[in-house]
Design goal:
five-stranded mixed β-sheet, alpha+beta, Alpha-Beta Plaits, 2 helices, 93 residues
Length: 93
Amino acid sequence: MSKNIICRRLLISGRVQGVWYRGSMQNEAEKLGVTGWVKNRPDGRVEALVEGTTAAVETIVEWCWQGPPAAHIDHVDVSVDQPHGLRDFDIGY
């Protein structure tokens, strides 16, 4: 049985840098079996590309609205992307 893999690009705004957002998201993604990456942007937002089953991607997107305890999320912009066949979840800088 093959899984349908979806991909979403996320832009997370609020207090999301300097609060261990990227490391927390990597941990959550690995628990869910989501692949992709997350990085800080110069404009203060965090950008992520997440790939996995529909249920796993929807769960990580929901998590992004909460983030780690020190974060304060104002908005999560979600756009559809094509799957890239990523195998890991990496933190970019």
